[in-house]
Amino acid sequence: MKIVKKEDFFAKKEFFISEMEKGRIFIYPTDTIYGIGCDALNGGAVMKIRELKKRENKPFSVIVPSIAWIRKNCFVDSLAEKWLEKLPGKYTFVLKLRNLNAVNSVVNGGRDSLGVRIPANWFASIISKLGKPFVTTSVNFSGEKNMEKLEDLDDFIKSKVDYAVYEGPLERRASSIVSLIDGKEKILR
């Protein structure tokens, strides 16, 4: 795993975007916690994250390139529109998919819904430039503490990641998750 500072990432931004397009696995900061992810259209890369997190079929969420992407690929009613006004921000919205091919089926286990977010963080601008969804899940095994600093990173996970974009300790909480399916609002976390 190569550790990259934000400044170095921006100095070689085009290189790192091409690495994302090749299916490389990244750890990156968000406005909440450190995430681990890859191109959400690359099924092989998504499977690597499933294997390293030991997460068989629980769906992953994605950072999306824009609100326009959400409107194009998900069903957005008036209730969802009101919530979308909170983006970018510390929210993940679960929406019914309009386009089942918007992500590889490995991302959401073939479900007809998807968790989408746009963090209020510089990394979201990279995903916007990438122009496609990027898997976002916490850097930990299910039920264990989220990675707050590099020293918290499990050796097994470390051995499977290509890049860690590290900004120092992030002692925050994960995003709020709100289901907005069929005109009903349900706070999941």
Tell me about this structure:
The longest helix is centred in the N-terminal third of the chain and has 11 residues, at 43-53. The chain has 189 residues and is an alpha/beta fold. α2 packs across α7 (122-130). Helix content is 31%, strand content 22%. It has 8 helices and 10 strands. The chain has a 10-stranded mixed sheet.
Write a concise synopsis of the structure shown.
31% of the residues lie in helices and 22% in strands.
Key features of this structure:
189 residues; 31% helix; alpha/beta
Q: What share of the residues lie within helices? A: 25-40%
Radius of gyration: 15 Å
Strand elements, count: 10
Beta-strand proportion: 15-25%
Which structural class should the secondary elements be placed in? Answer: alpha/beta
SSE pattern = EHHEEHEHHEHEHEHEEE
Output the strand order for the largest sheet.
1-8-2-3-7-4-6-5-9-10
The stretches of 5 or more residues where confidence is low (pLDDT under 50) are none
Apparent shape: globular
- Tell me, rounded to a whole number, the average pLDDT: 95
SSE layout and pairings?
Blueprint lengths: L1 E4 H6 L1 H9 L4 E4 L4 E4 L5 H11 L7 E3 L3 H7 L4 H7 L6 E6 L8 H4 L4 E5 L4 H9 L3 E5 L16 H6 L2 E4 L9 E4 L6 E2 L2
Parallel strand pairs: 1-8, 2-8, 4-6, 5-9
Antiparallel strand pairs: 2-3, 3-7, 4-7, 5-6, 9-10
